[in-house]
Protein backbone atom coordinates (compact mmCIF):
# COMPACT_ATOMS: atom_id res chain seq x y z
CA UNK A 1 0.00 0.00 0.00
CA UNK A 2 1.33 3.43 -0.99
CA UNK A 3 2.01 6.24 1.45
CA UNK A 4 -0.77 8.29 -0.21
CA UNK A 5 -3.06 5.39 -1.15
CA UNK A 6 -6.42 6.77 -2.42
CA UNK A 7 -5.58 10.28 -1.22
CA UNK A 8 -6.56 13.12 -3.54
CA UNK A 9 -3.72 15.59 -4.03
CA UNK A 10 -3.87 19.00 -5.72
CA UNK A 11 -0.48 20.13 -7.06
CA UNK A 12 -0.08 23.69 -8.36
CA UNK A 13 2.77 24.18 -10.79
CA UNK A 14 2.26 20.45 -11.20
CA UNK A 15 3.29 20.09 -14.83
CA UNK A 16 6.97 21.09 -14.65
CA UNK A 17 10.09 20.78 -12.50
CA UNK A 18 9.51 20.08 -8.80
CA UNK A 19 5.71 19.86 -9.18
CA UNK A 20 5.87 17.29 -12.00
CA UNK A 21 8.45 15.15 -10.17
CA UNK A 22 6.21 15.24 -7.10
CA UNK A 23 3.15 14.31 -9.19
CA UNK A 24 4.99 11.23 -10.48
CA UNK A 25 6.12 10.20 -6.98
CA UNK A 26 2.66 10.81 -5.46
CA UNK A 27 1.08 8.72 -8.25
CA UNK A 28 3.50 5.86 -7.52
CA UNK A 29 2.37 6.09 -3.87
CA UNK A 30 -1.29 5.62 -4.81
CA UNK A 31 -2.55 9.23 -4.94
CA UNK A 32 -5.19 10.58 -7.32
CA UNK A 33 -3.92 13.79 -8.81
CA UNK A 34 -5.22 17.20 -9.77
CA UNK A 35 -2.47 18.97 -11.72
CA UNK A 36 -2.91 22.73 -11.79
CA UNK A 37 -0.98 25.12 -14.01
CA UNK A 38 -1.33 27.84 -16.61
CA UNK A 39 0.69 25.75 -19.09
CA UNK A 40 -1.97 23.68 -20.82
CA UNK A 41 0.42 22.05 -23.28
CA UNK A 42 2.62 20.52 -20.58
CA UNK A 43 -0.50 19.78 -18.50
CA UNK A 44 -2.04 17.59 -21.17
CA UNK A 45 1.22 15.69 -21.68
CA UNK A 46 1.73 14.79 -18.00
CA UNK A 47 -1.97 14.02 -17.47
CA UNK A 48 -1.73 11.46 -20.32
CA UNK A 49 1.59 10.09 -19.00
CA UNK A 50 0.13 9.42 -15.54
CA UNK A 51 -3.10 7.95 -16.93
CA UNK A 52 -1.17 5.63 -19.26
CA UNK A 53 0.59 4.28 -16.17
CA UNK A 54 -2.74 3.48 -14.53
CA UNK A 55 -3.04 6.53 -12.25
CA UNK A 56 -6.09 8.73 -11.92
CA UNK A 57 -5.12 12.27 -12.89
CA UNK A 58 -6.73 15.39 -14.29
CA UNK A 59 -5.24 18.65 -15.47
CA UNK A 60 -6.99 21.89 -14.45
CA UNK A 61 -5.87 25.09 -16.17
CA UNK A 62 -5.76 27.89 -13.61
CA UNK A 63 -3.83 31.00 -12.67
CA UNK A 64 -3.20 30.86 -8.90
CA UNK A 65 -3.56 34.64 -8.68
CA UNK A 66 -7.21 34.52 -9.79
CA UNK A 67 -9.66 33.92 -6.95
CA UNK A 68 -12.26 32.65 -9.39
CA UNK A 69 -9.89 30.18 -11.05
CA UNK A 70 -8.61 29.01 -7.64
CA UNK A 71 -12.17 28.29 -6.50
CA UNK A 72 -12.70 26.35 -9.72
CA UNK A 73 -9.72 24.10 -8.88
CA UNK A 74 -11.48 22.84 -5.76
CA UNK A 75 -14.94 22.65 -7.36
CA UNK A 76 -13.46 20.47 -10.14
CA UNK A 77 -11.51 18.37 -7.62
CA UNK A 78 -14.64 17.67 -5.55
CA UNK A 79 -16.85 16.96 -8.55
CA UNK A 80 -14.23 14.58 -10.01
CA UNK A 81 -12.86 12.79 -6.96
CA UNK A 82 -15.37 13.67 -4.20
CA UNK A 83 -12.75 15.00 -1.77
CA UNK A 84 -9.34 16.62 -1.35
CA UNK A 85 -6.71 15.43 1.15
CA UNK A 86 -3.43 17.09 0.18
CA UNK A 87 -2.37 20.40 -1.35
CA UNK A 88 1.14 20.87 -2.73
CA UNK A 89 1.06 24.65 -3.13
CA UNK A 90 4.02 24.99 -5.44
CA UNK A 91 3.41 27.28 -8.44
CA UNK A 92 5.93 30.09 -8.63
CA UNK A 93 7.98 32.36 -10.85
CA UNK A 94 11.58 33.47 -10.52
CA UNK A 95 12.79 37.05 -10.75
CA UNK A 96 16.38 38.27 -10.87
CA UNK A 97 17.11 41.95 -11.43
CA UNK A 98 19.08 44.68 -9.65
CA UNK A 99 16.68 46.49 -7.31
CA UNK A 100 17.41 49.89 -8.83
CA UNK A 101 16.10 48.56 -12.18
CA UNK A 102 13.06 46.72 -10.82
CA UNK A 103 9.74 48.33 -11.71
CA UNK A 104 6.91 48.38 -9.20
CA UNK A 105 4.85 46.33 -11.67
CA UNK A 106 7.59 43.64 -11.69
CA UNK A 107 7.73 43.65 -7.88
CA UNK A 108 3.92 43.30 -7.71
CA UNK A 109 3.85 40.46 -10.26
CA UNK A 110 6.43 38.41 -8.34
CA UNK A 111 4.77 38.95 -4.98
CA UNK A 112 1.35 38.30 -6.54
CA UNK A 113 2.30 34.85 -7.85
CA UNK A 114 4.82 33.75 -5.19
CA UNK A 115 3.00 34.98 -2.06
CA UNK A 116 -0.60 36.03 -2.84
CA UNK A 117 -1.07 32.92 -5.01
CA UNK A 118 0.14 30.66 -2.19
CA UNK A 119 -2.28 32.37 0.21
CA UNK A 120 -5.28 32.12 -2.14
CA UNK A 121 -4.82 28.42 -2.86
CA UNK A 122 -4.07 27.60 0.80
CA UNK A 123 -7.18 29.47 1.95
CA UNK A 124 -9.42 27.65 -0.56
CA UNK A 125 -7.95 24.29 0.53
CA UNK A 126 -8.35 25.11 4.23
CA UNK A 127 -12.08 25.78 3.71
CA UNK A 128 -12.48 22.25 2.30
CA UNK A 129 -10.22 20.68 4.95
CA UNK A 130 -12.30 22.27 7.73
CA UNK A 131 -15.46 20.71 6.28
CA UNK A 132 -13.73 17.33 5.93
CA UNK A 133 -12.04 17.49 9.35
CA UNK A 134 -8.48 16.98 8.10
CA UNK A 135 -5.93 17.95 5.48
CA UNK A 136 -2.28 18.57 4.69
CA UNK A 137 -0.60 21.49 2.91
CA UNK A 138 2.98 21.74 1.71
CA UNK A 139 3.89 25.23 0.47
CA UNK A 140 6.95 25.73 -1.71
CA UNK A 141 9.08 28.54 -0.30
CA UNK A 142 12.85 28.61 -0.95
CA UNK A 143 16.14 28.69 0.92
CA UNK A 144 15.80 32.39 -0.01
CA UNK A 145 12.96 32.50 2.49
CA UNK A 146 15.67 31.97 5.11
CA UNK A 147 18.64 33.94 3.80
CA UNK A 148 19.00 36.95 1.56
CA UNK A 149 20.81 37.29 -1.76
CA UNK A 150 21.54 40.26 -4.00
CA UNK A 151 19.40 40.87 -7.08
CA UNK A 152 16.15 39.13 -6.19
CA UNK A 153 14.50 41.33 -3.58
CA UNK A 154 10.89 40.67 -4.64
CA UNK A 155 11.34 36.88 -4.89
CA UNK A 156 13.16 36.67 -1.56
CA UNK A 157 10.60 38.88 0.19
CA UNK A 158 7.77 36.73 -1.18
CA UNK A 159 9.49 33.47 -0.16
CA UNK A 160 10.24 34.84 3.32
CA UNK A 161 6.54 35.64 3.44
CA UNK A 162 5.68 32.04 2.55
CA UNK A 163 7.89 30.73 5.38
CA UNK A 164 6.14 32.91 7.97
CA UNK A 165 2.70 32.39 6.42
CA UNK A 166 3.36 28.68 6.87
CA UNK A 167 4.27 29.15 10.54
CA UNK A 168 1.15 31.24 11.12
CA UNK A 169 -1.25 28.90 9.32
CA UNK A 170 0.34 25.89 11.01
CA UNK A 171 -0.39 27.42 14.40
CA UNK A 172 -3.88 28.58 13.42
CA UNK A 173 -5.02 25.08 12.42
CA UNK A 174 -2.81 22.93 14.67
CA UNK A 175 -5.74 21.83 16.83
CA UNK A 176 -8.00 21.22 13.84
CA UNK A 177 -6.15 18.34 12.23
CA UNK A 178 -4.73 20.41 9.36
CA UNK A 179 -0.94 20.28 9.06
CA UNK A 180 0.84 23.00 7.08
CA UNK A 181 4.56 22.95 6.30
CA UNK A 182 6.93 24.37 3.70
CA UNK A 183 9.62 23.04 1.39
CA UNK A 184 12.67 25.30 1.05
CA UNK A 185 14.71 24.14 -1.94
CA UNK A 186 18.22 25.21 -2.82
CA UNK A 187 19.27 25.44 -6.49
CA UNK A 188 17.32 22.74 -8.35
CA UNK A 189 17.71 21.93 -12.05
CA UNK A 190 14.31 23.01 -13.45
CA UNK A 191 13.10 25.41 -16.19
CA UNK A 192 12.71 28.23 -13.62
CA UNK A 193 16.52 28.66 -13.62
CA UNK A 194 16.37 29.81 -17.25
CA UNK A 195 19.84 30.72 -18.51
CA UNK A 196 21.29 31.33 -15.02
CA UNK A 197 24.97 30.29 -14.97
CA UNK A 198 24.91 26.69 -13.69
CA UNK A 199 28.62 26.76 -12.82
CA UNK A 200 28.04 29.71 -10.48
CA UNK A 201 25.12 27.95 -8.76
CA UNK A 202 27.11 24.70 -8.48
CA UNK A 203 30.11 26.45 -6.94
CA UNK A 204 27.88 28.30 -4.47
CA UNK A 205 26.46 24.98 -3.22
CA UNK A 206 28.56 23.11 -0.62
CA UNK A 207 27.71 19.72 -2.21
CA UNK A 208 29.00 21.13 -5.53
CA UNK A 209 26.02 20.13 -7.62
CA UNK A 210 22.46 21.27 -8.28
CA UNK A 211 19.58 19.41 -6.67
CA UNK A 212 17.22 17.24 -8.71
CA UNK A 213 13.42 17.71 -8.77
CA UNK A 214 13.10 14.07 -7.64
CA UNK A 215 15.07 14.90 -4.47
CA UNK A 216 12.53 17.65 -3.68
CA UNK A 217 9.64 15.27 -4.36
CA UNK A 218 10.86 12.90 -1.62
CA UNK A 219 10.88 15.73 0.92
CA UNK A 220 7.39 16.78 -0.19
CA UNK A 221 6.14 13.20 0.17
CA UNK A 222 7.48 13.15 3.73
CA UNK A 223 5.56 16.32 4.61
CA UNK A 224 2.40 15.29 2.72
CA UNK A 225 2.17 11.82 4.28
CA UNK A 226 1.71 10.48 7.80
CA UNK A 227 5.50 10.08 8.02
CA UNK A 228 5.51 13.69 9.28
CA UNK A 229 2.42 13.33 11.50
CA UNK A 230 3.91 15.47 14.35
CA UNK A 231 5.22 18.26 12.08
CA UNK A 232 3.38 21.53 11.45
CA UNK A 233 4.14 25.21 10.88
CA UNK A 234 7.68 24.41 9.90
CA UNK A 235 10.03 24.27 6.92
CA UNK A 236 12.25 21.59 5.50
CA UNK A 237 15.34 23.14 3.92
CA UNK A 238 16.79 20.87 1.22
CA UNK A 239 19.63 22.83 -0.29
CA UNK A 240 22.86 20.81 -0.55
CA UNK A 241 24.17 22.67 2.51
CA UNK A 242 23.74 26.24 1.21
CA UNK A 243 22.09 27.74 4.31
CA UNK A 244 24.46 25.92 6.67
CA UNK A 245 27.25 28.25 5.51
N1 LIG B 1 14.33 25.39 -9.10
C1 LIG B 1 14.85 26.06 -8.06
O1 LIG B 1 16.07 26.28 -7.99
C2 LIG B 1 13.96 26.53 -6.94
C3 LIG B 1 14.56 26.94 -5.74
C4 LIG B 1 13.76 27.36 -4.69
C5 LIG B 1 12.39 27.39 -4.84
N2 LIG B 1 11.83 27.00 -6.01
C6 LIG B 1 10.37 27.06 -6.12
O2 LIG B 1 9.85 25.82 -6.54
C7 LIG B 1 8.57 26.03 -7.14
C8 LIG B 1 8.49 25.20 -8.40
O3 LIG B 1 9.40 25.73 -9.35
P1 LIG B 1 10.27 24.83 -10.33
O4 LIG B 1 11.68 25.01 -9.96
O5 LIG B 1 9.74 23.46 -10.42
O6 LIG B 1 10.08 25.67 -11.69
P2 LIG B 1 9.16 25.41 -12.98
O7 LIG B 1 9.24 26.68 -13.74
O8 LIG B 1 9.57 24.15 -13.63
O9 LIG B 1 7.69 25.21 -12.39
C9 LIG B 1 6.87 26.26 -11.96
C10 LIG B 1 5.48 26.05 -12.54
O10 LIG B 1 4.60 27.04 -11.99
C11 LIG B 1 3.72 27.45 -13.02
N3 LIG B 1 3.16 28.76 -12.74
C12 LIG B 1 3.82 29.95 -12.71
N4 LIG B 1 2.96 30.94 -12.43
C13 LIG B 1 1.74 30.38 -12.28
C14 LIG B 1 0.45 30.89 -11.97
N5 LIG B 1 0.25 32.21 -11.79
N6 LIG B 1 -0.59 30.03 -11.89
C15 LIG B 1 -0.41 28.71 -12.09
N7 LIG B 1 0.80 28.16 -12.37
C16 LIG B 1 1.86 28.99 -12.47
C17 LIG B 1 4.57 27.44 -14.26
O11 LIG B 1 3.78 27.40 -15.46
C18 LIG B 1 5.42 26.20 -14.07
O12 LIG B 1 4.81 25.05 -14.63
C19 LIG B 1 8.43 27.54 -7.33
O13 LIG B 1 7.59 28.06 -6.30
C20 LIG B 1 9.84 28.04 -7.16
O14 LIG B 1 9.90 29.37 -6.71
C21 LIG B 1 12.57 26.56 -7.07
TrEMBL record:
Task: Choose any GO biological process term that the UniProt entry carries and state it.
Answer: bile acid metabolic process
The highest taxon in the source lineage is Bacteria
EC numbers, comma separated: 1.1.1.47
Answer yes or no on keyword Cell division: no
Which Gene3D superfamilies does UniProt cross-reference here?
NAD(P)-binding Rossmann-like Domain (3.40.50.720)
* Pfam families found in the cross-reference section: adh_short_C2
A GO molecular function term, named singly, is:
glucose 1-dehydrogenase [NAD(P)+] activity
Report keywords, A-Z. Oxidoreductase
CDD domains in alphabetical order = SDR_c (cd05233)
The entry's family comment says: Belongs to the short-chain dehydrogenases/reductases (SDR) family.
Q: Tell me which NCBIfam families the record gives.
A: PRK07231.1
Protein's name according to its UniProt entry: Glucose 1-dehydrogenase
Amino acid sequence: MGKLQDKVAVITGGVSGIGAATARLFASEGAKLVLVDMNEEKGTVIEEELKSQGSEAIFVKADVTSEEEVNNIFETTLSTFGKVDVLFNNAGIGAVKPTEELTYAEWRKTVEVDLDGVFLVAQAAIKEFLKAGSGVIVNTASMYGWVGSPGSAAYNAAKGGVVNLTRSLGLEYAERNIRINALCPGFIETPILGDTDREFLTNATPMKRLGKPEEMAKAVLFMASDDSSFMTGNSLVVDGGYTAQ
